[in-house]
Amino acid sequence: MDTDRADEALGQRIRHLRKARGLSLKEVAGKAGFSIGLISQIERGISSPSVKVLTRIANALQVNVGSLFDDGADHDEVEGNGIVVRRKDRRAVRFRGTGISKELLTPQAADSELDIFMMQIEPDGTSGDESYMHDGVEAGIVLEGAIWLTVDGEELHLREGDGFRFASQRPHSFRGGARGLSRVLWVNARRLQGGGR
Question: How many domains does the chain have?
Answer without folding.
Answer: 1
